[in-house]
Amino acid sequence: MSGSVLDRVRVLVADDRAELRTLLRDMLSEIGFNNVESAADGGDAYCRFLAQPAGLVITDLRMAPVDGLALTHMIRTAPDSPHRAAPILMTSGEAEERWCFRRATQG
């Protein structure tokens, strides 16, 4: 799919597990996203987002020291955020639904 619209979309993947960052990069490449950058946590991802805004952010829910919810909050509300409406996909290996809901509603 060389030269497709997907080729022009910058994707930012944030996950604290290197093997999942690699897996996501490979999967995205297979469907035509070839401009993929990765970060090991939400803080690193936000610094990269500031330097070059992404058209799509894929982030893990639970990372340390900055998790996916904090990253989402920074992208959506920080005064210096360059693209507050960027689409964000949240991933999680968390099986306990109550934890996700409780954390999301704590703000």
Q: What does this 3D model show about the protein?
A:
- The chain has a four-stranded parallel β-sheet with strand order 2-1-3-4, with helices on both faces.
- The protein is α/β, with parallel strands linked by helices.
- It is 39% helix and 18% strand.
- The protein is built from four helices and four strands; from the N terminus they run βαβαβαβα.
CATH superfamily: Response regulator
The run of helices and strands is EHEHEHEH
Mean pLDDT: 90
| Largest sheet composition | 4 strands, parallel
Strand content: 15-25%
From the 3D structure, determine the CATH topology. Answer: Rossmann fold
Strand order of the largest sheet: 2-1-3-4
Number of helical stretches of at least 4 residues: 4
Counted beta strands: 4
Distance between the termini: 40 Å
Proportion of helical residues: 25-40%
Radius of gyration: 14 Å
Apparent shape: globular
What is the CATH first-level class name?
Alpha Beta
Low-pLDDT residue intervals, each spanning 5 or more residues: none
Just name the CATH architecture: 3-Layer(aba) Sandwich
Task: Please identify the structural class as seen in this structure.
Answer: alpha/beta
Task: Produce the secondary structure layout.
Layout: E1 10-14, H1 18-30, E2 35-39, H2 42-51, E3 56-60, H3 68-77, E4 88-91, H4 97-105
Parallel strand pairs: 1-2, 1-3, 3-4
In brief:
The chain has 107 residues and is of the alpha/beta class. It has helices spanning 18-30, 42-51, 68-77, 97-105, and strands at 10-14, 35-39, 56-60, 88-91.
